[in-house]
Amino acid sequence: MFNPDLIKENTELSLNNVAMYEFKALPEELNPEISKFIGEITLLGCEIEGPLITANLGVEKIGEKEFILMSILLPIKNTKLIPEPYKVIANFNIGKNIHYRYVGSPSVLQDIYRGLITYANQEKLNPGVIYNSYNYKELSSYSAEIKVDIYMGISNTEGR
Predict the structure, then answer these.
(1) Distance (Å, rounded) from C-alpha 2 to C-alpha 120?
(2) Which of 9, 15, 47, 73 is the most exposed place for a label (fewest CB within 10 A)?
């Protein structure tokens, strides 16, 4: 259940030495693509140094199918080992975020996103891309409950 009292304004999401993978996939293909990315990074000998960050960049309709445009970010050591189609970002920084930590069923995440967007609109914060930060090791073991730090980029904050 969304609780606006848990929102922290004016937070920042900042990571160094990030491997990034951008792709489009059907919804049922997202988790396998994320697992493939983590697996390939690990096989390259890159030590993972931080959380897995995902961002839904949009939806593209092709025929009757809707593809999700996704970006995955993973802080690592040994960025020189990263091949295409992956990219390396030395300093990934998104200032002016609102932050919300959610612990609970993944099935409720859409309600949390709607709550954050409603809050941002009511506060005239102009919501942007939503970034989800997970402990990737926790994702690899099945659990009915997840812990995710949600960062929503905001703009035009009128003096905030």
Answers:
(1) 13
(2) 47
Provide the domain count of the chain.
1
Short-list 147, 114, 115, 148, CA closest to 131? 148
Tens digits of residue pLDDT in 65-121: 999 999 999 999 988 889 889 999 999 998 889 999 999 888 888 899 999 999 999
Q: Please state the φ and ψ torsions of residue 88, each to the nearest 5 degrees.
A: -115, 135
Q: Are strands 87-104 and 8-25 parallel, antiparallel or unpaired?
A: antiparallel
Give the structural domain span for 33.
4-156
Run of H or E residues at 138: helix 136-139
CATH code, domain carrying 131: 3.20.80.10
Buried b (16+ CB within 10 A) or exposed e, 71-104: bbbbbbeebeebeeebeeeeebebebbbbbebee
